[in-house]
Amino acid sequence: MEIALLGNPNTGKTSLFNHLTGSYEYVGNWSGVTIEKKVGVFKNKKANLVDLPGAYSLNPLSADEAVVTEYLLQDEFEKIVNIVDASQLRRNLLLTLQLIEYEKPVVIGLNMMDVATGYGKKIKIEALLNMLGCPVVAISARKGEGCTVLADAVTNHTNTSLLKVDYGKMIEQYICEMSSLVNQKTNLSARWLTLQLIEGNASVLKHLHSLAGKMEVDDFLKRIEAAANKIGKEAAQLVFEARRNVVEDILASAEIMEEMNKEVLTNKVDRMVTNKYLGLPIFMLLMYFMFMLTFDWFGSKLSDLVDRFITGFFTNIISTALGALNVSPFIETLVMDGIIAGVGGVLVFVPQIFILFFCLSFLEDSGYMSRVALVVDKLMEKSGLNGKAVIPMIIGFGCNVPGVMAARTIETKRERLLTIILLPFMSCSARFPVYALFIGAFFAKNGALIVLSIYLLSIFLVLILAKLLSATILKGEKSLFIIELPPYRMPSIKILWKSTWDKGKGFLKKAGTFIFAGSVVIWLLTYFGPAGMNVEMDNSYLASIGELISPLLKPLGFGTWQAGASLLTGFLAKEAVVSAMNIIYAVPNIHSLQHLMSEVYTPLASYSFMVFILLYIPCLATLATIYKETASKKWSAFSIVYSLMLAYGISFIIYQVGRLFGLT
């Protein structure tokens, strides 16, 4: 048995899915967390649960909402769990009525009762149950309260709701007409199909064309619109008004508004953090605080401990084990100077990356990130981007891959494509080890400011490029930005840990796969050369490859073959740059590498290098995702070419202008 989980965005749907199935999917206190369907098994083993993207209506506006409609049209399932935000019943119940019209058994999970109480709303569950004609279970998806009762209710409930919205004589006549055309041709509810057709659901229109014939369906639409126009309305408007009236009747019976003696905390905080003058400075201050935690206060000290463990205790154990196994000198050197040096050089920065992810998770789960989207919306709009692009780009700070995928929530194709090709400029965690390496070598006292400047540079460039692209090759329609601001809440330690681990495990996974394999290849290229094996580093194949690129990099301040060879590995994964440097310079620990960097680079050249890492080609995983989301080789190739050109141009300006001003 398969059960569909549906609800408005940011109603706690993914949290409920996790509690009902015992799995862990990413949870955030903002809309757009779920962008594709996910399948899990109920803990009671009685059914599969399908978590679908959040939708305000079954008439899709964006790519992620289209997943819901296509699922309802094409997939086989038996029941529906509709999660409803108790504090926003008026809006949520509009979707509930559409789901009831689908004529499958529906069970309501009434979430966020505590938030409703905070707004002075008292929900009478018995009245709601009687009005809707389906089971209603009070739950706390965040805490897991009531989830077992809900699971039992949905797996045992078999009756469809008897609630039927009266759309008026004219609309009901047309519903009967269309129903007679398709009744014997589909297992879907003919009434639901007709109502979705009247509302302008393009997916349903296409489906009915195949069932009843294009001419018949198009003629039906012309006639019903003509009939509605005679009374000064549109057909879709009549459908909406009828549903709204039913919702108002339900609220009159089931919702009691109590007098509030004090202002809601969320409103107090929002007056400050969304203020048009204070909003951006507060955001930058929080970012600075996050980087101070990561680089100065805790992160660097923890990284030092990991470095000492890897280069000391762990390396000694491996060395002793290899000696006991009597392995060949070739294998011993490969393991010690290739794998441990390469992978260990990246793992050293794991504490700092996890601290960064913890801070981001805290801001997300608290509800603050939705306010960031609101604060920067004006800037985004002026640059040609939709305010919804903020959410994918913030996700991109963790990893560009889910950020690109999250662009599905943007309605128009032009704005979605614009977001996708700009998103790789958001500074993901994979670039972080490179920043940490050079900050430790040159900017130890001002590390947080340096990283903040790089993040702000990425945001500034995205806005400028968006303006240029939307005025040239990506002209087109703009959509309105509407965002729901969730209530603030104190993130739980359990959710913070799960969210941090979910982000951080990707970094660890890459260290054990891409970085491991890359370290072996890099070491082999340093071990072999035109003269044979075990050659001097400068005579290796890797040096020959790096020397082909180094003249091009000289105007940027880092024209060495070592820099060129390291940058090539960044296409596989940006962390591999540090891994390559550790192998190339053959140093015992990260502090030795940083000391060596201070002799090879200047502070200006190192900043130029970090900016180049920020902007040059997307990594392989991101590029593959861009191709998947755009289905275009042209735009994938464009992402490579223009990012390389931009990286070269900006780094050139930074280095050359810096030299003119006497910086080193």
Outline:
64% of the residues lie in helices and 6% in strands. It is α/β, with parallel strands linked by helices and 664 residues long. The chain has a six-stranded mixed sheet, with helices on both faces. Strands 6-8 form a two-stranded antiparallel ribbon.
Report on this structure.
- This protein is an alpha/beta fold.
- The chain is built from 32 helices and 10 strands.
- α15 crosses α28 (576-585), α16 (350-366) packs antiparallel against α24 (493-512) and α22 crosses α29.
- Count all strands and give the number: 10
Strand order of the largest sheet: 2-3-1-4-5-7
What structural class is derived from the secondary structure elements? alpha/beta
Shape descriptor reads elongated
Question: Which residues sit in consecutive blocks of at least 5 with pLDDT less than 50?
Answer: 26-35
Note the gap between the termini: 67 Å
Tally of contiguous helical segments: 32
Radius of gyration from CA coordinates: 29 Å
Tags for this model:
single chain; alpha/beta; Rossmann fold; Helix Hairpins; 3 domains; six-stranded mixed β-sheet; two-stranded antiparallel ribbon; 32 helices; 6% strand; elongated; metal ion binding; ferrous iron transmembrane transporter activity; transport; GTP binding; G_FEOB_dom
Task: Map the helices and strands.
Layout: E1 2-7, H1 13-21, E2 38-41, E3 48-51, H2 63-74, E4 79-85, H3 89-101, E5 106-111, H4 113-118, E6 121-123, H5 125-132, E7 136-138, H6 147-156, H7 169-182, H8 190-198, H9 202-212, H10 214-229, H11 235-254, E8 255-257, H12 265-273, H13 279-297, H14 299-325, H15 329-347, H16 350-366, H17 368-375, H18 377-383, H19 390-398, H20 400-406, H21 413-422, H22 432-442, H23 447-471, H24 493-512, H25 514-527, E9 528-529, E10 532-533, H26 541-553, H27 561-569, H28 576-585, H29 590-600, H30 603-615, H31 620-630, H32 633-660
Parallel strand pairs: 1-3, 1-4, 4-5, 5-7
Antiparallel strand pairs: 2-3, 6-8, 9-10
Helix pairs in contact: 3-11, 5-11, 7-8, 7-10, 9-10, 13-16, 13-23, 14-15, 14-16, 15-25, 15-28, 16-24, 18-23, 19-20, 20-31, 22-29, 22-30, 24-25, 25-28, 26-27, 27-28, 30-32, 31-32
Domain FeoB-type G: 1-160
Protein name: Ferrous iron transport protein B
Binding site for Mg(2+) 1: 22
